[in-house]
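stage 2 :: seqdesign
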């Protein structure tokens, strides 16, 4: 685990603001879901990704399929094929 050197206080509602530099470096956008874990005396935050979320579109659907260990939605596959076709 690496220290960022950043300290924040918890406000009266129990909230902590994550600095923009940290959000940018982790690819966290407004309204992105975050998972919260605990390990002994640590709180661990991780950007949430559903287990079957498409790696291209982020869409979660029962129609998604796994290819080579990654999930793809029908729309994600179409986008990949379009880019591949344009690259020819």
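stage 2 :: out
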């Amino acid at each position: 685990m690496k220290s960022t050197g950043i300290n924040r206080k918890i406000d009266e509602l129990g909230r902590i603001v994550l600095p923009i530099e940290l959000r940018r470096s982790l690819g966290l956008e407004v309204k992105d879901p975050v998972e919260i874990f605990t390990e002994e005396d640590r709180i661990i935050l991780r950007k949430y990704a559903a287990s079957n979320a498409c790696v291209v579109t982020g869409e979660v659907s029962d129609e998604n399929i796994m290819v080579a260990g990654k999930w793809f939605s029908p729309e994600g596959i179409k986008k990949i094929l379009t880019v591949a076709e344009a690259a020819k």
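stage 3 :: structure notes
- Residues 50-88 form one domain.
- Residues 74-86 form the longest helix (13 residues).
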